[in-house]
Amino acid sequence: MLKSIDLSQVMVIDIETVPQYPSYHDVPANLQDLWEQKTHYQRSADQSAEEFYEKAGIMAEFGKIICISMGIFSYQNKKYSLRLKSISGDDEKDLLQKFYKLLDKQAPSLVFCAHNGKEFDYPYLCRRFLVNGISIPTQLEISGKKPWEVRHLDTMELWKFGDYKHYTSLNLLATILNIPTPKDDIDGSQVRQVYYEEQNLERIITYCQKDVITTAQVLLKFKGLEIIPTENITIVA
């Protein structure tokens, strides 16, 4: 599938998520009980549900999306370029409606690409669309489709080469493939703090966009192509 993929039909995406509530004490009592049940086997013996709540953002039942960044390839003068756009905000439903409208203008055959997308980004988006009462976009819908009809690429899956137990972070994969990456001032574990305590959404958007750029460069490497120079990467409003 990869060799036949036209990069002009690919949208590289990354999402950033946070817990739905700033702290465990803000969570309604019924959801606190459900959180304790959900995380019972994931917490260490001496770790309380409250202490574990900082990880709530990675679970679609207890988290929300605050940023979706997208990258689109174009090819001119025998060179690839990448155009980035982000949709972000505190109102998740509004954010998802904007993303839906954007995808509605794209071809149903659009190919998504994300790092660990099949385990995280794609199902998380579908679940949050459903929670917010919004139809799942055609490009994300997999129900009733045969495996080869699902046009979802995952750079981590590509690197596994069939090894289902193998996990490799985007940063490690970029490093071993000699892809230069800008030094991040935050990582995924700090997004909750930056959002709720620093209230610095712009910093999170920048972090999200960097992951899109890196994922796009990794995909190019998998296709045996040169990576895109910085001057050929643009961010649009």
Automatic annotation (TrEMBL):
Cite the Pfam families for this sequence.
DNA_pol_B_exo2
The record's keywords, sorted A to Z, are:
Exonuclease, Hydrolase, Nuclease
- Molecular-function GO terms, alphabetical: exonuclease activity; nucleic acid binding
Q: Which residues form the signal peptide?
A: none
Query: Superkingdom, according to UniProt?
Result: Bacteria
Domain Predicted 3'-5' exonuclease PolB-like spans what residues? 61-224
> Would you tell me the protein name for this molecule?
3'-5' exonuclease
Source species of the chain: Pedobacter changchengzhani
The root-end lineage is:
Bacteria, Pseudomonadati, Bacteroidota, Sphingobacteriia, Sphingobacteriales
